[in-house]
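Teaching soon. Invent one.


***
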Amino acid sequence: MTLHTSNPPRLWQWGGASQQGGRHEQQDRWAVFQPPGKNGLLAILADGMGGHVGGALGAQIVIDVARDFIQNPPAALRANPSAELDRLCRRMHETINRQSETARSTVVMVWIDRNQAHWLNIGDSRLYHFRDGQRLMRTRDHSAVQLLMDLGEIQESEMATHPAQNRLYRSMGGEDAPKPDLGRFSIRAGDLLALCSDGVWEHVTESQIWIAALANSPDAAARLLTEQAAQRGGAAADNATLVLLRTDPNGVDASSGWLQRLSAGFASWFGR
């Protein structure tokens, strides 16, 4: 799908996909919303936490509250996006607690307005920002393995397979007030944003995300990558969800060397 943001106008293509994997139900949810005036867009992904009764409910509440918010956004959203995303996060948390004592969820969201992206996350669902084949940032997980990596006890590449990977210390829902991380970054033509649940980043590399998004539409790339994540996870594969947003794809010079090399490498990465 193609969306426009204004002031100045910017073209975005986006797509998303989910796979249930080996789990008994799909507890991931995702959406991309635009306010009535089409000024900006909000992409959001929630992962109902495994082991909690009501995980799917918690994730669905996150999406429903975001939908209501963006249908009638506060005027301050454009003036002070981080503060409004924080308020939205608290509203999600309170709504989960009103409807369930056990529902829990992660959340990662990004509000895009003009050439700025403002993000928020709680848990281990991630946002990545790629440019020219390089990762510029990813959100930091609120997990035991992230702490181990921060301490230098494990490498980032070991996070996905570490026995403590699923141990989170922050989530939506429950007695503790939400403590999200927030930030922002500038966007340029050709940038790629990826929101994903842990069922994706455990099994799909950053290079594979970038290459797939170059060789396919965002929707097709998301389907391909979530299917591969579920296959690689085997019989016990977690739910896998990925949302891809790409800006101004026609502004990328398809004859440039790095693009040709990455596109040519697609077959070797995914054709096996």
